[in-house]
Design a protein that fits this description.
Helices cover 44% and strands 29% of the residues. It is of the alpha+beta class. Belongs to the AHA1 family.
Length: 210
């Protein structure tokens, strides 16, 4: 349990909004430092073989202007790719996904580490946002960064073992703690306390099945 608390505390979270054309998009930002250097982290987040080891199997054309598809999850276009600096993709899931983009940014940190930022910008139906809040995507990204951190330190689980782990008490504790942290970030963005509480409870229940 101590490891779970430590992993959660390593991530800085922000919630905000951004105007996209004529629509208001929600944003979630995660920032943390990994001990690996930029070249190693870049390889881990852009190599199809390595992505499959800490996230999901992926296929596509891995170049700017190419497309990708994560197994059973999102797909889209690779909109921008500056090696060892940033990659931006459209993040589309379902029959009518609307606007959704994810950008990963890397920067060298003193001592040989890497500052990792992930920002997800999306336009979602108001009824969904009011029910689940930013934790709906935030918890998923916390789980992804947990897997990436394990991978970069030589640990981690196979895809099959990771699916099994997500039903474990440890995983449910991680999700609950992640949901609380996203609730704090939501409150810091100006959300009212009742909305924060309701969306946190709903989102944690969705992820844990409880």
């Amino acid at each position: 349990m101590d490891e779970i608390v430590e992993e959660i505390s390593r991530v800085h979270r922000e919630v905000g909004t951004r105007r996209v054309a004529s629509e208001l998009a929600g944003t979630v930002l995660l920032r943390r430092t990994f001990g690996a250097d930029v070249a190693e982290v870049w390889s881990a987040v852009t190599s199809p073989e390595r992505i499959a080891r800490w996230f999901l199997p992926v296929t596509g054309e891995f170049r700017a202007g190419g497309s990708y598809q994560l197994e059973g999850n999102a797909g889209g276009e690779i909109l921008e790719c500056l090696p060892r600096e940033r990659v931006r993709v459209s993040w589309l899931f379902g029959p009518d996904p609307g606007f959704s983009e994810v950008e990963v940014r890397l920067a060298a940190e003193g001592g040989g580490g890497t500052v990792f930022e992930l920002e997800h910008v999306s336009v979602v139906p108001e009824e969904f946002r009011s029910q689940y809040g930013p934790g709906a995507v935030g918890i998923g990204w916390d789980l992804a960064l947990l897997g990436l951190g394990w991978h970069l330190t030589g640990g981690g689980l196979s895809h099959e073992d990771a699916v099994e782990w997500q039903a474990s008490p440890e995983a449910k504790a991680f999700v609950a703690r992640s949901g609380e942290e996203w609730g704090r970030a939501f409150a810091a963005s100006g959300a009212d306390p009742e909305t924060v509480t309701a969306t946190t409870v709903a989102t944690v229940a969705f992820y844990t099945g409880e």
